[in-house]
């Protein structure tokens, strides 16, 4: 099994260099291995890094809603403090020490700026890049504890939000900047779903965007802990991925060590039930298959 979506810092914390040591990364690997995971991808958010902020600085400046505009500016002030070079050097040292880690990032969609994002990322030896839609413009729809963000669900409407998500995801996939669609149906995170016809329509767009762009998709246990109460993607979307031969990774989306490899058994069974016999791993941004196999012994307990 793989955990191809691992963050070092919880959102509420400032990025600290304490996590950026080979010793600390070896604890991540050890914990993952106890839970049946043989390789992890470190995929910190691009917006955690000062270099990331330089590229996307002020994309929120034209947002007419003052509360949303200021929220995004404050979000970047809080998050964008880490050093990308140090992050990459530490992952490199961990690999050289024989730890089963690969170097990744989780990259948001910045309309009109993805060329600049891509040229920044091309300068680093990444193994895998996750592509994510957490925001629709400046609306951070997945911040379920923020009244400022959640009130937008009512003013914009659920159907509108779902379709806008499908559109943004298609645009992100078409840029071919990233390798794996993270939490592919994150739009359901708050548990707000339109009628089944609209769900089907948006799921079709997501699956076709992955297939057309050649991206893989992740199966993430993070949704089980959210009001959505199911993995990302839904069973029906995972089946669509399978029907279109879209490769899959498995992921916890842990922020810090505590939830690494969370519910990996659930992810194994979801992949297997959808007809997958392999998972997609990456090295130097080239995908290759690893056998899904039976439930690893650590997981059958
Ligand atoms: Zn994410
Ligand atoms: Zn994440």
The named CATH superfamily: Metal-dependent hydrolases
Radius of gyration: 18 Å
Structural class: alpha/beta
* CATH topology category name: TIM Barrel
Strand sequence of the main sheet, in spatial order?
Answer: 7-6-5-4-3-2-1-8
- Per DSSP E runs of 2 or more residues, the count of β-strands stands at 10
Largest sheet: 8 strands, parallel
Helical run tally = 11
CATH class descriptor:
Alpha Beta
Percentage of helical residues? Answer: 40-55%
Question: Which regions contain 5 or more consecutive residues with pLDDT less than 50?
Answer: none
Order of helices and strands: EHEHHHEHEHHEHEHEEHEEH
CATH architecture assignment name: Alpha-Beta Barrel
* Broad shape: globular
The fraction of residues assigned to DSSP E strands is 15-25%
Q: Could you describe the 3D structure shown?
A:
This protein is of the alpha/beta class and 301 residues long. The protein has one domain (2-300): TIM Barrel, CATH 3.20.20. Helices cover 42% and strands 17% of the residues. It has eleven helices and ten strands. It has helices at 22-34, 50-56, 66-79, 84-96, 114-122, 147-156, 158-175, 196-213, 235-243, 264-273, 297-300; strands at 2-7, 39-45, 101-108, 128-132, 180-181, 216-220, 248-251, 254-255, 278-283, 286-291. The protein has an eight-stranded parallel sheet. It has a two-stranded antiparallel sheet with strand order 9-10. α9 links the parallel β6 and β7 (248-251). It is globular. The mean pLDDT is 96.
Briefly characterize the structure.
With 301 residues, this protein is of the alpha/beta class. The protein has helices at 22-34, 50-56, 66-79, 84-96, 114-122, 147-156, 158-175, 196-213, 235-243, 264-273, 297-300; strands at residues 2-7, 39-45, 101-108, 128-132, 180-181, 216-220, 248-251, 254-255, 278-283, 286-291. It has an eight-stranded parallel β-sheet.
């Amino acid at each position: 099994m793989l955990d191809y979506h691992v963050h070092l810092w919880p959102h509420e914390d400032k990025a600290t260099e304490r996590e950026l040591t080979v010793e600390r990364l070896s604890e991540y690997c050890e914990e993952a291995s106890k839970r049946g995971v043989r390789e992890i991808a470190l995929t910190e958010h691009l917006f955690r890094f000062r270099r990331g902020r330089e590229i996307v600085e002020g994309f929120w400046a034209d947002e007419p809603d003052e509360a949303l505009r200021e929220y995004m500016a404050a979000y970047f002030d809080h998050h964008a403090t880490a050093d990308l070079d140090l992050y990459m050097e530490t992952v490199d040292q961990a690999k050289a020490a024989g730890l089963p880690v690969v170097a990744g990032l989780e990259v948001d969609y910045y309309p009109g700026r993805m060329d600049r994002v891509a040229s920044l990322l091309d300068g680093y030896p990444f193994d895998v890049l996750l592509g994510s839609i957490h925001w629709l413009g400046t609306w951070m729809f997945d911040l379920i504890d923020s009244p400022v963000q959640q009130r937008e669900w009512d003013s914009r409407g659920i159907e509108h939000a779902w379709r806008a998500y499908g559109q943004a995801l298609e645009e992100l996939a078409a840029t071919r900047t990233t390798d794996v669609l993270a939490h592919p149906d994150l739009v359901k995170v708050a548990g707000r779903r339109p009628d089944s016809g609209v769900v089907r329509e948006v799921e079709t767009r997501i699956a076709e965007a992955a297939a057309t762009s050649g991206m893989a998709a992740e199966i993430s246990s993070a949704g089980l802990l959210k009001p959505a109460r199911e993995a990302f993607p839904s069973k029906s979307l995972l089946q669509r991925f399978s029907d279109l031969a879209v490769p899959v990774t498995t992921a916890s989306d842990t922020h810090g060590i505590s939830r690494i490899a969370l519910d990996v058994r659930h992810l194994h069974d979801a992949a297997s039930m959808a007809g997958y016999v392999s998972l997609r791993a990456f090295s130097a941004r080239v995908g290759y298959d690893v056998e899904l196999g039976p439930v690893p012994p650590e997981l059958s307990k």
